[in-house]
Write a structure and sequence with these properties.
Elements: H1 7-23, H2 28-38, H3 43-50, H4 54-61, H5 69-79, H6 83-86, H7 101-113, H8 118-125, H9 129-137, H10 148-158, H11 162-165, H12 169-177, H13 184-195, H14 198-212
Helix pairs in contact: 3-4, 8-9
């Protein structure tokens, strides 16, 4: 019985249930509910982002209402969902999330904001540095969804919602905080360059031009 399982066995089953839920071929209403559950939103919160009522969301999930094609398109755009997944066009298992680039950009931004090294993040997530590099560059997510234990750890450490991790507002905040749009490392290099003498600046520019040819 599940009640007598060890914690590791429970986590394994939880991860399997999570993966199966994301990849399972279910009803349209069931797939929309899966999206909402993935982002940990109430029906009201989910509907507000789509400009529909929570009652409409409830009816869609219960298969009492069918979403219009325009609403499905909005869901895909707002929640970054693959068209073939939400429409169930592909009978083979496909990923739910369409593009992880926003997630990886936000992950890098948050890591730099907290001034954490990649090695530090790998330790936090209990993965090796190569796997963390693959996570931050998106290579880990080319063929699979983000592992649940990683998502849960990141959520707790940075104290933000799952939806925020996939939201462009974090990137917009980064640009607002840094009007020049430069990363922390780029700004540091620029500050060092500003302190150089005119002779050193010319030498640096000469080296850069040489390697750009």
């Amino acid at each position: 019985m599940k009640g007598y399982l060890h914690d590791e066995d429970k986590k394994r089953l939880e991860l399997q249930d999570y993966t199966d839920t994301l990849m399972r071929d279910v009803s349209l209403g069931g797939r929309i509910k899966t999206i909402r559950n993935f982002y940990e939103l109430t029906q009201k919160e989910f509907g507000e982002k789509l400009k529909i009522t929570h009652a409409h969301v409830s009816k869609i999930e219960a298969q009492k209402d069918l979403p219009s094609n325009s609403l499905l398109s909005v869901i895909q755009n707002v929640y970054n969902i693959r068209e073939e997944w939400i429409n169930g066009k592909n009978k083979t298992r496909v990923k739910m999330i369409n593009n992880y680039s926003i997630f990886t950009s936000n992950l890098k931004y948050l890591r730099e904001l907290k001034d954490i090294t990649k090695h530090g993040m790998a330790l936090l997530l209990s993965i090796d540095i190569a796997d963390y590099n693959d996570l931050e560059t998106g290579k880990m997510l080319d063929e699979k969804e983000i592992p649940l234990h990683i998502l849960e750890t990141l959520k707790g450490y940075f104290d933000i919602s799952v939806f925020d991790f996939f939201n462009t507002s974090l990137y917009i905040s980064k640009v607002r905080d840094s009007p020049d749009g430069l990363s922390t490392e780029e700004r540091e290099l620029l500050d060092i360059y500003k302190t150089c003498s005119l002779t050193d600046k010319k030498m640096i520019l000469g080296v850069i031009r040489k390697f750009r040819r």
